Each structure stands twice: as structure tokens, then as C-alpha cells.
Amino acid sequence: MKKQQNSELNMFYALKALIISFTSIWSTNTIFTASYNAFLALIAQIETNKNIQQNPITGVAADKKAKRQTAFDKAWDTMCRLHSWAAATNNTNMLGQVSFTETDFSRATDNEFIGMITNIYNLAQTNIATIPVTYGVNVGTQGAFLAANTALSNVTGDPKKAKTTVKQATKNLASLFPQANTVLEERMDVDMQVYKITQPEFFNEYFDIRHPIKPATTKRALEINIKDSVTHLPIEKVKATITDTTIKRKSTAKGNIWIQNLVEGSYVLHLELVGYTPKEVAFNHISGETTKLTVEMVKI
């Protein structure tokens, strides 16, 4: 994916985490729920195409190369045995059909190669009843030969198919991201307005992370992660305020709080949650940088 797409996907994930942490607020709001479900469906499609796009084509080619080598080994062994028997019985017709060199095999295209080894297999299969057992061409060797041939045939063309699939996934992503942003702009951003007065924490944090962070140009001012001091598990719904600002937030299900904008200076972070001892953390913020705080709260 492109840098901008990665940035937007990170924003989608941040919104998803935030919305989940406030489920109790919007769960009975059928309009918001419908918009959110449409948003989730697009994220799922983006993830599917992202995984396809990142699928290593080289792995497919390496698998085919290994299967071609195995098929060659089986074909070469059978061809040499047929050649020996044909020479011993002065069967000039068969000799003409089993006189390939290693170079002939190596230079052959995939389809030519499969045709060559298939002819050798069929020739051995046709004469298997009359070839003396001492030449070692039997049901067992033919079964292994056929299996190797089939395995190669099944993967022939896969690298080209993989490239085509990746190309289509890239095309799909170019369409899916605008669709997801449209759902946000025309539905969820509008649906959020009902919470501006009644649920200001939810509303403010939603729009604080609503727009993607542009790579290498815009950084979050403050990232906070809150954990239990004993279990070290994240704590959600911790109320956070910062001195000398109007900032008020609640931690997500993963204990995260993000602040996009903060003027350079010294501050005190206040954290409160029923069942825990209130916590204060002094910190300094430098403009243009991301201040990261990990805070542990003690359970009462």
C-alpha cells in the first residue's frame, strides 16, 4: 500500500478502537450502528486486499521451481531406463522418443517441459507390461512420476496469476479507501453530531483522530498508555485532563489516549477512575515532536 493509504488505515483503526470503547453510548443508536457497520465492512475488504497485495510472488515461483526439479528427476530416471531397454531390444522408434538431453529440458518452457515429461510417462505406461522388471519401471515408479507431473502442472502459471491478483488488489484498494472516507464524511461525521453536547469526550476524541496523520509531516502531540500497576493490563475509561487546557479525554479499551494538538510547554496530566488512586504526571512537550507517556495506576 502507499504511505497515504497506510496513514488512512491507521486512522481507521484508531477510530474503530475509540468507537468500541464507547459502545455503551451508541449501541442503541440504529443510524450510527448502520453507518459504523458499513465502515467496518470496508475495513475488512481493505485488509483482505492488503494481504493479497503483500503476498510474496517469489514464494510461488520458488515452489514451482522445486516441483519442476522433482518432475525432471522422475522423468530423467524413467527416460534413461526406457533408453537402456530400447537399445537392448533395438527399438529404434522408442530410442527416437527418449533421446532428450538435460539442456533440452532446461531450455524448455513450462508447457513444453510438461509435454516432454508427459510423453515419457505415457511411453513407459504403454510398455510397462513388457518391460522386464530388472529395468525398474513399475507401478510404484510410475505412480511417483505421475504425482510429480501433476504437482508441477497444478502450479504452472501461478507466478503470473499471483502478479495479476496483486495488480487487481492494488486497483481494489484505490477504490476502497475513497469509499471508506465517504462513509466517514457523509455518514459517521454527521451521525456524531448528536453526541457533541451529551457525550463531549466521545465527540471530541472522535474528531481529534478523525483525519489521517500525514507521513513525515504531522505528528500527534501526545500519546498516553494507561496500565494497571499489578496486572499491567490496559485500563479503559480513565478520565484524563491536562492543566491549563480544556482537554478532557477517556482512555480506549487498549488504555490509549491520543492528543493531536498541544502547545509547547510544561503540563500536569490528571487521571481518575473509580476503584483506582488518582494519578498526576508532570511532563514537558516540545513542538513538532510526539510526547509518549506510559502510566501505571494503582487499584484501591
What's the topology here?
Layout: H1 3-21, H2 23-26, H3 30-53, H4 57-88, H5 92-97, H6 102-107, H7 110-127, H8 139-155, H9 158-191, H10 195-198, H11 200-208, E1 222-228, E2 239-242, E3 248-250, E4 256-259, E5 265-272, E6 279-285, E7 291-297
Average pLDDT, rounded to a whole number, is: 89
Order of helices and strands: HHHHHHHHHHHEEEEEEE
Give the low-pLDDT segments: 212-217
Terminal CA distance: 46 Å
Question: By helix and strand content, what is the structural category?
Answer: alpha+beta
Which strands sit side by side, in order, in the main sheet? 3-2-5-6
Strand content: 5-15%
Question: Could you describe the 3D structure shown?
Answer:
The model is unreliable at 212-217 (pLDDT under 50). The chain has eleven helices and seven strands. β2 (239-242) and β3 form a beta hairpin. The chain is elongated and about 100 Å long. The protein has helices at residues 3-21, 23-26, 30-53, 57-88, 92-97, 102-107, 110-127, 139-155, 158-191, 195-198, 200-208; strands at residues 222-228, 239-242, 248-250, 256-259, 265-272, 279-285, 291-297. The protein starts with a helix and ends with a strand. With 300 residues, it is α+β, with helices and mostly antiparallel strands.
Main attributes of the structure:
300 residues; alpha+beta; Immunoglobulin-like; three-stranded mixed sheet; 7 strands; elongated
